[in-house]
């Protein structure tokens, strides 16, 4: 007999029924997913994980996955020590990233309050939206911040991205003075920001569902950097240091958004 941890490292999944069969008979049935409260999960972990006690012989594991998000099901079977060690490394990295994001958020809010410059307010909302998405997507939020509010886990991720786009589009428009390079690009960014705000309001009002919201943020999240990067390139060629920094940052963001869109 041995014990293993079966892990599905995609926290947005809503419900997973896990059946363990031994010699053709069901010996255990466990329910995973972000629709459960933290106390209802087999393990109070960041990902969907369940302990399996395996007697000698052959076993089968059957999974039934239901989700409004994309059906991404990366499965790993680990020993307890391997699972704990891996999770410790992930939590450390996520903690460092979230700590940096908090520092940037406080910096932006303080400058917004002191200088009354709307650009810092827009950047603070951009950071907040990205933080909400990352906390939900990687399972840190449901594990530590809102374990007893599963409804947040099932709806808040695309809203976080929508907020980031709604704030990020005008932020880039103002920071780069896009209208001085291209009036068309400036109008497109304004339109993207407006569409993101409308999508956010429509979702909160119950007019559009999760899938429609997810599709909107996937498209908008790619269009904004596609507009911003050429404008930043023009300004960077003129030797503007701010444009160089923005260009480097948004190229990284664009690669991440492209990878995310491809995965979904």
List the helices and strands and how they pair.
Blueprint: E1 2-8, E2 15-22, E3 25-32, E4 48-54, E5 59-66, E6 75-78, H1 80-115, H2 118-137, H3 140-145, H4 150-175, H5 183-204, H6 210-237, H7 241-263
Antiparallel strand pairs: 1-4, 1-6, 2-3, 2-5
Helix pairs in contact: 1-2, 2-4, 4-5, 4-6, 5-6, 6-7
Structural commentary:
The strands form 2 sheets. Strands 4-1-6 form a 3-stranded antiparallel sheet. 61% of the residues lie in helices and 16% in strands. It has 264 residues and is an alpha+beta fold. A hairpin with a 2-residue loop joins strand 2 and strand 3. The chain is built from 7 helices and 6 strands.
Using brief descriptors, characterize the structure shown.
3-stranded antiparallel sheet, 16% strand, alpha+beta
Summarize the structure.
The chain has 264 residues and is an alpha+beta fold. The protein has helices spanning 80-115, 118-137, 140-145, 150-175, 183-204, 210-237, 241-263, and strands at 2-8, 15-22, 25-32, 48-54, 59-66, 75-78.
Spans of at least 5 consecutive residues whose pLDDT stays below 50 are none
Strand order, largest beta sheet: 4-1-6
Residue share in helix: 55-70%
What amount of the residues lies in strands?
Answer: 15-25%
Number of helices: 7
Q: Kindly, what is the distance between the CA atoms of the first and last residues, rounded to a whole number of angstroms?
A: 38 Å
The major β-sheet equals:
3 strands, antiparallel
Structural class: alpha+beta
Number of strands: 6
What is the H-and-E element order? EEEEEEHHHHHHH
């Amino acid at each position: 007999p041995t014990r293993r941890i079966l892990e599905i490292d995609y926290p947005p999944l809503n419900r997973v029924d896990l059946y363990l069969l031994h010699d053709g008979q069901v010996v255990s049935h466990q329910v995973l997913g972000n629709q459960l409260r933290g106390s209802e999960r087999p393990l109070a972990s960041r990902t969907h994980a369940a302990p399996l006690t395996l007697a000698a012989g052959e076993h089968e594991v059957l999974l039934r996955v239901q989700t409004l998000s994309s059906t991404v099901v990366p499965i790993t079977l680990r020993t307890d020590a391997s699972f704990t060690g891996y999770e410790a490394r992930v939590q450390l990295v996520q903690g460092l990233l979230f700590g940096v994001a908090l520092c940037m958020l406080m910096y932006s809010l303080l400058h917004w309050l002191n200088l009354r410059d709307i650009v810092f307010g827009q950047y603070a909302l951009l950071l907040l939206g990205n933080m909400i998405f990352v906390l939900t997507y990687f399972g840190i939020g449901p594990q530590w911040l809102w374990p007893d509010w599963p409804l947040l886990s099932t709806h808040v991720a695309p809203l976080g991205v929508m907020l980031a786009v709604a704030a990020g589009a005008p932020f880039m428009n103002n920071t780069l003075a896009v209208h001085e390079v291209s009036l068309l690009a400036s109008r497109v960014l304004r339109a993207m920001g407006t569409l993101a705000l409308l999508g956010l309001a429509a979702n909160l009002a119950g007019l559009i569902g999760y899938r429609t919201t997810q599709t909107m943020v996937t498209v908008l999240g790619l269009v904004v950097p596609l507009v911003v990067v050429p404008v930043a390139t023009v300004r960077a060629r003129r030797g503007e240091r701010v444009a160089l920094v923005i260009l480097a940052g948004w190229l990284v963001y664009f690669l991440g958004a492209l990878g995310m869109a491809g995965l979904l």
